[in-house]
Every structure is written in C-alpha cells, then in structure tokens.
Amino acid sequence: MAFSLELGEEISNITCDCCGGRFKSVGGIIKKDDDACWVYFATLHTGHTDIMVGLTVSIGKWWDDTAFDGRHWILLTVKPSEWNFNMRIEEPEALASDLKDELCAVADYVVVEDPSNA
After folding, report:
1. Which one of 68, 75, 90, 111 has the largest count of C-beta atoms within 10 Å of its C-beta?
2. Amino acid 1: pLDDT
3. Which domain holds residue 109?
4. Per DSSP, which regions of 18-63 are E strands?
C-alpha cells in the first residue's frame, strides 16, 4: 500500500482559551496509490507542558452530505515518547471496526509525514 499526503491549504495558529498556549490546526488528504481515500484533521498542541496531537482520520464519502452511513472515522490522541510516539484511541466504538487496522496505519503515516508537525 503506497500512501501519499496532500496537506490542506490552511494551517491555522490558534490560542487555547484555557491557558493561552498556542496550537496549530491542520488537515489534508491521504491517497493510496494516487486515489484520495482518507481525510485527516489534526490539532498540534505545543504551548502546553505535554506536547499532544488530537488526530481524526476518516474514510468514506466526506464530500457527500447524505452519505453518513458510509463514513468511518477514528479519533486518536498522539504523544511523543523518547523513541517514538504513543497513540490512544479516543472513540471506543472504533476498536470494534473492521477498518481499525487500516485507519491506524493511515494515522501512523500522517504522524510521520505531515510537514506541519516539524
């Protein structure tokens, strides 16, 4: 499976309402073998003591407002560790999904390849 990432046009710099810290909001498209298959949205919190990313990966017809039943998504919290990064699935229903492994593989790819996380 050959993935590629197309970063969205807008990277937003946002101020946290609770603490005044800064974070980024980004989104993009993930392609598999040149076909757009997934979208992702991420918030990168760098203004807090613990750096954290909130990452949502979605597969389905996100361009079709009537295709809700055909959409699947996973919400993860991603935190760096000394040697890698740790992901925690935040939506328990995603654990039972047949697409869980594929969604997690895409999430791994986004965390490594999204240029806005540098």
Report:
1. 111
2. 58
3. 3-69+99-117
4. 22-32, 35-45, 52-59
